[in-house]
Specification:
Layout (H helix, E strand, L loop, with lengths): L1 H26 L16 E4 L1 H5 L3 E5 L2 E5 L14 E6 L8 E9 L3 E9 L6 E9 L2 E9 L12 E6 L7 E9 L3
Antiparallel strand pairs: 1-4, 2-3, 3-10, 4-9, 5-8, 5-10, 6-7, 6-9
C-alpha cells in the first residue's frame, strides 16, 4: 500500500513538472515585434497630413502608443486609415501567427489589424476589423497572410489602423508570436 502511494505521488509530481515545462515553453515563444514599443525598436505612427493639421497626435511613450484624433468637428469625415501604428515585419504566407495587444479607449470604436506591402500598391495580405470597447481591453487576432495576384513582395508591415478612435486611446503590450 505504501509503495502504491509513493508511486502515485511520484507520478503526480512528474506530471506537474512536465506540465510546468510545457507551459514555460509556450510562454517563451519569441515576440516577433520585439519587447519594446518605441521608435528605437522600429515602431512608427503615421497620421495623414490634413488630420495632423486638424489636431491629431500620436506619441510613443513608456512602452505605449497614444493616439489622439482631432476634435470631432475639425474634419468633415475621418477614415480608419488616416492614423496608423506600424512596424516592419516579415511573415510567411499561409502560416498563422497570434497577435495580442491591449487598448484603453474612452469610447467604443473600431480598429483594423492589417498586414500589408509597405509600398505602392500597398497590397493587403491580411485584414481584420476589431471592435474596441471603452475602457481597458485585450485583443487577440490570428493572422494568416494570404498571397495575392500581385505576389508576396517586400517590405511588409503589421499596422493598426486607428483613424476611428474617439479621444486619446492607448495601445500597449503588443505581441506577435508563432503558435507552437
Amino acid at each position: 500500500k505504501e509503495t502504491r502511494m509513493k508511486f502515485a505521488i511520484s507520478t503526480l509530481m512528474l506530471m506537474m513538472c512536465l506540465t510546468g515545462m510545457l507551459h514555460a515553453e509556450q510562454e517563451a515563444a519569441p515576440n516577433l515585434l520585439g519587447d519594446k514599443l518605441d521608435a528605437k525598436s522600429g515602431w512608427k505612427i503615421w497620421i495623414h497630413q490634413p488630420v495632423r493639421e486638424a489636431g491629431a497626435k500620436g506619441e510613443l511613450k513608456d512602452n505605449t502608443a497614444i493616439l489622439t484624433p482631432p476634435a470631432e468637428d475639425a474634419l468633415e469625415k475621418m477614415s480608419v486609415h488616416w492614423m496608423q501604428l506600424y512596424k516592419e515585419v516579415t511573415l510567411e504566407q499561409d502560416k498563422s501567427y497570434t497577435l495580442t495587444f491591449k487598448t484603453d479607449a474612452p469610447e467604443d470604436c473600431e480598429m483594423q489589424a492589417v498586414y500589408l506591402l509597405s509600398k505602392s500598391p500597398y497590397t493587403h495580405y491580411f485584414d481584420h476589423t476589431l471592435k474596441v470597447k471603452a475602457g481597458p481591453q485585450t485583443h487577440k487576432v490570428t493572422i494568416t497572410p494570404k498571397p495575392s495576384k500581385d505576389g508576396y513582395d517586400t517590405p511588409r508591415s503589421l499596422r493598426l489602423f486607428c483613424g476611428s478612435v474617439k479621444g486619446a486611446t492607448t495601445i500597449s503590450d503588443i505581441k506577435l508570436v508563432e503558435p507552437k
